[in-house]
Amino acid sequence: MWLMTIIVGLVTLVLVTWLRDYVRRWRMPPGPFFWPIIGNLTLFGGQFYLTFIELAKKYGDVFSLKQGMTDVVVLNSLDAVREAFVKKGAEFAGRPTMLSGDIFTEGGKDIAFTDYSPTWKLHRKLFHTAIRGYALGDNLQSKVHESLEETIAEFSKMEGQAVNIEDHIYKLVYNVICSAAFGIRYDMDDKDFNTLIKVSKDGAEVFAQGLLADVYPSLGFLPTPGKAAVEKMTRSFLDIMQHHLDQHRETFDPSNLRDITDHMIKAQKDAEEEGIQDINSLTDTHLRQTISDIFGGGTDTTILTLRWAVLFLAAHPEIQEKVAAELDSVVGRDRLPELSDREATPYTEATIHEVMRMGTIAPLALPHTTTVDTTLRGYRIPKGTWIMPNLWALHYDPDTWGDPDVFRPERFLDESGKPIPKPPALMPFGAGRRACPGEAVGKADTFLLLGGLVQNFRFTIPEGEGPPDLAPDKKGGGVQNTPYPYKVVMTCRK
Ligand code: HEM
């Protein structure tokens, strides 16, 4: 009898919750039928940004889904993304709390995963000044050139062989960031360097899988293997960050700031001496988290962009030769491309835009939340609703691009080969208050690295292999758009 009562009680609870969720949907954007408890969870599998494009055909460019029991609104058009993130910036600038993010950011003490708050603003400001001082302009250029020279020497030794260059690109990009963040440039075989890369790579994989409790926060107390894996990788990664922070503190000299880490220590000391007001937002935890964000934001994104770029160029040799010819005529062969060459190399810049459009490495950016009860297109959007901008839909919209599936840098140039104003639908860095603060670094880094590689090598698909698979690797899922592993043959141009 008591078992029957429990079952009836549970079923009633589920039905009432389900009914309540439907009532809550009142005047919210339309969307498909959702089940009790699981909602539309099945629609969030695989490359769900593609599923979302199909759903938009039925429900319109702004529609609602249930991720488990959480309301999600998906934005599938430029107009919708602009209205939410630009016109109503602050109202759509929140971040959801997810258990995996919370563990990794030690309770939301970073920039990327923390909610819209004064602490987030302070750290974004610090991030900007740190980046300006140590990871842009001549500073970035000299770091990239040093790392490139080593990679070019390595690639030259592998001339003519079919190679998967993924590991080399990892080391190339990590060395640039390590140099900006810690003032260290590692030998490619250095043990600490390789440990850092392995820990970050493993971490990104564990993190991309997410946790059940990210969808059902009330299950956060369960000691699942996934949670243990996130905790383990967080400890390994943050230990490395803290080790560098400690080392910098021992040799810190305020009159000689060496890198981003020194810059952060200085900000902390200034707050201690002057303000006190910001001190609770500038603990060591915050410092290592902001440095981690510079690592997390500045490595995987650039690595993925370069991996797509080399693949697209190997698959389109005629475009690669045009880039190489432009670099030859502007830069020559006696020096590496410099940031001052960017204006005179519109075809190379257009090619990078096209890589960022077709590669769309973050198809759904990062999830936002609404910070207040608000509206969009006349629909009601309650506070705390997850908002997913479908950047893939913007980048592959046939009405905007005409032939979105064709790799064609010329779409960013006029008839005389000059750059046209950037189309607003090209949004690889997102838009509004949460847009990527590393955009300038990402673009400059990609220009210098890709320019240096194409100036020195011709990348071709190994003989006997058919055309490369340009489809995204399904393992990337909805979070990251990763190319399938591939090999290229490098031929020295010099
Ligand atoms: C090709 C390079 C890059 C691409 C395509 C890219 C893309 C993005 C996107 C789509 C977002 C989410 C925007 C949103 O929430 O709406 C983001 C956020 C972020 N990116 Fe980047 N990014 C790149 C390079 C970088 C670099 C080089 C850094 C650091 C040096 C960086 C640091 C960050 C940070 C800290 C955030 C979180 C911002 C916040 O929540 O306020 N990114 N990026």
UniProtKB/TrEMBL annotation:
EC number(s) per entry: 1.14.14.16
Keyword Methyltransferase found: no
Residues the entry annotates as binding heme: 436
Protein name, UniProt field: Steroid 21-hydroxylase
Lineage: Eukaryota, Metazoa, Chordata, Cephalochordata, Leptocardii
TM annotation in the entry: 35-56
Top enzyme category: oxidoreductase
Co-factor(s): heme
